[in-house]
Design goal:
alpha/beta; 23 helices; Enoyl-CoA_hydra/iso; Formyl_trans_C; six-stranded mixed beta sheet; binds coenzyme A; 677 residues; 29 strands; HoxX-like; 2-enoyl-CoA Hydratase, Chain A, domain 1
Amino acid sequence: MRILLVASAFNSLTQRVFAELRDHGHTVAVHLMVGDDQLREAVRGHAPQLVVAPMLKAAVPRDLWSAHTVLIVHPGPPGDRGPSALDWAIHEDARSWGVTVLQADEVMDAGDVWAHVACEVPPVGKSDLYRGEVADAALAAVLLAVERFASRTYTPQPQHGGGWRAADHTRPYLDQGLRRIDWQADPTATVLRKLRAADSQPGVLDRLAGAEWFLHGGHPEDELRGRPGELIATRAGAVCRATVDGAVWIPQLRRRRGRGEPAAVKLPATLALAGQREGHLGELPELPEVPAPLWLPRERRTWSDVVYREQGSVGLLRFVFPGGAMSTEHCRRLLDAYRFALTRPTSVLVLGGGRDFFSNGIHLNVIEAAPDPARESWANINAMDDLVAEILTTTDRLVVAALGGNAAAGGAMLALAADEVWCRAGVLLNPHYRLMGLYGSEYWTYTLPRRVGAAAAARLTRRALPVSAAGAHRLGLVDRVITAPPEGFGSEVDRFAALLAAAPVLQERIAAKKAARERDEALKPLAAYRAEELARMRRTFFDATEPYHALRAAFVRKQPVRRTRPHLAGGRPRPGGGPGAGDRADGAGPSPPAGRSPGWPLRVRRREGGRSKMLGMSIWTPEPEYSQLARPLAEVLESVRASAYEAPHDALGHAQRRADLAVLDALDAATWPASGS
Ligand code: COA
């Protein structure tokens, strides 16, 4: 079926719906909602049989839902309405919840129900719940609704009337007045609920160290105590704050934006308080750093982002960093913990195993807030590479990466350094860097082709699309897909790891792995992969005109999308028509002119008398960012030239790039004598 996904952002749930519908054989395109007219145009162009909105904050215009079946995914059970569904569920301590797929109608969230699926609500933050139990329920409900729609025999159920009456809960936006924590009265359980209901957005607005902050994340503390509301300790970037009957850990803070100020970025709490670049802010009070033992006793109920334990001859090194972002400091601490794990007499070492993000690579927020973002980027990628190198050179035991949650960019490549990659069935991988304008490191030029082959590696990195767990397994990116709810993933990993450690062929496998590493090292040393990758990364980091810097700034400040990136559109909408013969359904970019590889049109602007004028020419380039940023031609030419020889390409792609470059050169000479001015 031809399905158009309409969403406010290509977020985790939209990505999962996109990847899994494609796994089910559907032709899927994505349109990011920027306005009613653009949506009308997209629907006209794609002529979908079905429109699905996995995460839409705006209403679909009447003329569209009355002419097409538009299915809305609402993260609440039937009868639940309003923009803060999950916030309210956690705020009110619901133990079970659900997701409903309903037909767009006059009243938001009140349309007929195509499918609804219930889910548990464990004590986790809202975004963790959203990416876990809620996403699982949403996928089950969407797939069921699509199947019912395709059958042409199913009649969606009205929420009221006939044999069914859903209880009506239209709840308002959960505002900061309701979220406010009363530190002198709220018990720990209430404080945690309020923090979790606001995690990761919008956070709970509060005063701290003389300034206004949004508090992000909340975890219980079992030993430390203090005067209610007081900050009492720090640990690995988080602050501990006393409540009336205990204390909580708050890992991240975001400064409230003052009038006329740019949006502040969310940072590890101690870093945010220290003010870093914005030195005028409240100083961090003198607080003791109270580290948690790496090998945390099972009965402890405290927060730690890196924990080690053992089970027979299996070592388990669990790490959970907010948003999956790994700063220089995170990488170094994890490397220390990894080195400790290597001193233990185990034969299998499992990395990860937590329920939320495995890793999303270098910490873009910490980089953005650093006094010198280029230097911090450089330090961060080197710290990541040090960690990956240690994993790649572990030859005395098997290393397993266990992904309970999603992984992207360098975080996905971190997983590939392990001997085996296991992931939960609901996991989504984004094994590419280009959307952040980066070539990437983490030894990906060694590990990715080693797993999937050179051609698939080039496709994955160039197309920059999410891959489902099942798709990753088919490609060879993942060795084992574990079907378990998010809460059950850890125990399943324990079970499979014990089986692996007990396997009669284990020692043989370890010996074979050591031999393979030595062979590979003789062919091309790991240091050479690293040096080549880092040379490109260095150029990007230290050149302020590289798209990475603008893309990073937009990402960390959550600048709204202005249009759908062409790699998601799955074929250019054609005025008045459905997909044409040349349109691609695989999201690899719009259809190229005959004889060209898939790519994106690069529009060239000329600056005339301070005004920017679009030249009526375009060439096809594999880099979508360049056309979006509309940078001066000289810069574009430089970047395209530099990147043309960087990514691994098959011979054909390379030849086409050379042809593109020749066109660019001609363009440069013919139309831009004083290029870049
Ligand atoms: N650095 C800092 N923060 C990051 C991050 C990173 N590398 N990756 C994700 N985050 C944060 C997001 O800002 C978001 O923060 P919030 O909780 O304040 O909203 C949170 O983690 C979840 O990410 P989000 O983008 O909302 O989740 P998603 O599931 O919709 O998308 C990704 C996941 C990984 C595709 C997207 O976050 C992304 O592109 N991240 C950047 C990856 C990257 O380029 N890394 C650097 C190169 S190694």
